[in-house]
Amino acid sequence: MTAHLPPPRGALPLTPPERAEAASKTRRFLTALADLPRDNRFTRRRQLAAIRAARGSLSDLDDTGLRDRAAEVGAALRQGELTGRLLVDAFALIDEAFCRETGFRFHDTQLLAGLHLARGRFVEMATGEGKTFTAALPAALHALAGCAVHVVTVNDYLAERDAAETAPILARLGLTSAHVIHGMELPEKRAAYAANVTYCTNKELVFDYLKDRAKEAARSPLAYRMWLETVEPPLVTRLDYVIVDEADSVLIDEANIPLILTEPTRNTLSPRFLQQAMELAERDDSAWEDEDDLGFSALRTEALARLVATLDDPDPEWQALALAEEVLTQARAARDRFRRDTHYIVEEEKIVLVDQQTGRPMPDRSLPFGLQQILEVREGLEPSASRKTLAKLSFQLYFRKYHKIAGMSGTMREVRAEMRDIYRTGLAAVPTHKPVIRQRLHRRLFSTTDEKLDWAVARAEEIRDQGRPVLLGVSSVQLSEALAERLRDRALPHDVLNARRLAEEAEIVAEAGQGGRVTVVTNMAGRGTDIKLSKAVKDAGGLHVVIADALESDRLDRQLYGRAGRQGDPGSYDIVHALDEPELKLLLSRGAIAAFGRLRALAPAAASAFYFRYLAYRRNRLEGIRRSRRVKLLKSEEKRDEMLSFTRRR
Hints:
Distance between the termini: 34 Å
Structural class: alpha/beta
CATH class of the largest domain: Alpha Beta
Keywords: ATP-binding, Cell inner membrane, Cell membrane, Cytoplasm, Membrane, Nucleotide-binding, Protein transport, Translocase, Translocation, Transport
Pfam families: P-loop_SecA, SecA_DEAD, SecA_PP_bind
Radius of gyration: 27 Å
Oligomer: single chain
CATH architecture of the largest domain: 3-Layer(aba) Sandwich
Domain SecA family profile: 26-608
GO biological process, one term: protein import
Number of helices: 24
Strand content: 5-15%
Shape: globular
Domain Helicase C-terminal: 452-603
């Protein structure tokens, strides 16, 4: 008798079989929406005109009638057939709900952005154009059609704020909405994910997904099937439609950062071994290869034994050569790339990482094994135990799992080609509702940070005396506190918004637009922050922003100075750098920095002009290198998924 191997088992579905029919209808609707007649300027003009024309017919409905009409449109959408007429009807209903709740109508640029998002595109909208309410248009459309809708943003503050602002609008259409933030109890999260529209952060969403899959992987097929049938199914079960706010930050800047779900083990590294690794990292620069374009250097293979031999009494763990090389490399990285109050802070005897994109603390995150423990020993803390990896996933691979993805940002044109290649969707640039009249006033280069900060403080005092508010933007907690100390020395009232003052964020942001207010901010006040201005402040010239640090990309500059001159308001900004900034060493070579120092001594104005042009070139070049790394990571993850596709562990 001949034995036959059974065919490989496919990955088990995300949803139980009884939900297959509903999921099929959802897919038909999403496919139909993507297959609308070819989009063009004339089609969009007709749709905008039709939405405006429908406003009069809906104003006669009472609130109950509006919900009933929304239910009728939702029922038609759930049939899986979406026509241009249904799209217009749905947007008109949402516009009416918006008007009843706020007293305003969506303006044409918001409606236009909503049409693009509904078709599964990325949209570049300038800061201050109302992206929060714009996202409600496609979110409500898909929710009415029965799709699970996730609106993803970059921090808990924005997730909670956006959910609160849009909830009354969605409720008028008979839809539920909720938010998921860090620290919520499991029942609260489960209820939030069950809402028609869920607002959440990218990290919280992906980690919840990973936790579900880690539980799934630990079960046998029968136990897994029974688990899906219990009263507590996975939190994140349907990946129908996602709108990613600040899409370039989530999908590009953080794309190659793997999210790793771990649990502690009993193993740890001895403090003596880690201390010796830090000592060796300071010795003999010739033992290390030249830095690459991103500032990383590797240990020369033949140098490890030579370095260890210089220790008087090597710790026994140096005998494990693979571990020794890894920890020594991590010690070098800690020395060169991780500074207290810039990349992390110490709170309650723990290392708390600071998100370099948002400036926010990440208390539940840790660095790779070895690097985390080295920083702990460096700060006089007890090294934590090693951790076992349960699951890992990158943002770019996770968000490619959605049936349809859309996103918004004010800074996407530089990465549009990568977004198209990786997420298979295009970019639409939406004009501003009012002309932008923001002005750049100064770009200055200084030799030292002290000179730069003195100039920034004097500039803040000058603008403050005009009755205008000032934002002083830096990249680190350390620099924000140094700037605050100088303001105190000048007796200038001010606020500081950084990773140490997360609880006061809403209050500080609310007061930052008052006349004569000076606020020192990190990247926390970049993406999504809306600073309200009074008429008196607008008449005085609006908000002024001083960017007093070399940020990683032009997009981060644009996000920060984009706090000024929003929605047609007046505003202005300055950019000032210093040649001794630690972050500048990650952008320019030591030789280039030295050359600019010599040139500045001879011709300051020429040095400043040439420096900023060269900095833009270097930022673009480094962005290309990072893009290549992101593509390699994606291919590696896809290959791993392909190899594991015959198991449930995909």
